[in-house]
Amino acid sequence: MKISKTLISKEEIENKISEIASEINDKYKEEELVVIGILKGAFIVVSDLAKKLQLDVTFDFMSIKSYYGSESSGQIKIVKDLEYDIADKNVLIVEDIYDTGLTLSNLKKLLESRNPKSIEIFCMFVKKDVAEDPIEINYSGFEIGPEFVVGYGLDYNGKYRELPYLGVLS
Ligand code: 5GP
In 5, 11, 110, 144, which residue has its Cα 20 to 30 A from 79's Cα atom? Predict the structure, then answer.
């Protein structure tokens, strides 16, 4: 397997992160924010975003597994839970990619049951027209096609996460 093309360059990604960080800075100025990165894929988005935030902000991470079988679809298993209580907090979920949307819609329901003050979602890459039951993404980086992508946190068998751009494997 090799990277056959660069879909989104390092520069485009850097510009987009700055743009979204300034929207988030505007939205949450004067407010406390808890940023929740979904491991492992979102670790690079969170770290790039973090450096651009000028807010009263706390970072936490969660790791989850989704099940897609017909009987168990809609289930997520928490592999690593949050360290902080999010009750009455403004929460921003940061995810790498939105494909069918199952992971995020289930995660959002789960976090809503913990009574945060608000929940928003930032998803770096959004696959167009794939979601069966779409949920609102408040900040989305780039819309992409259905092809399998790697880089900027996204892996194939654990590899390629470190690439500073988004590429297509073939
Ligand atoms: P969803 O529940 O939205 O279908 O799945 C989202 C998860 O699927 C992502 O967090 C990611 O782990 C994985 N995923 C979906 N599409 C891709 C892709 O094109 N490349 C990689 N590396 N992972 C993907």
Answer: 144
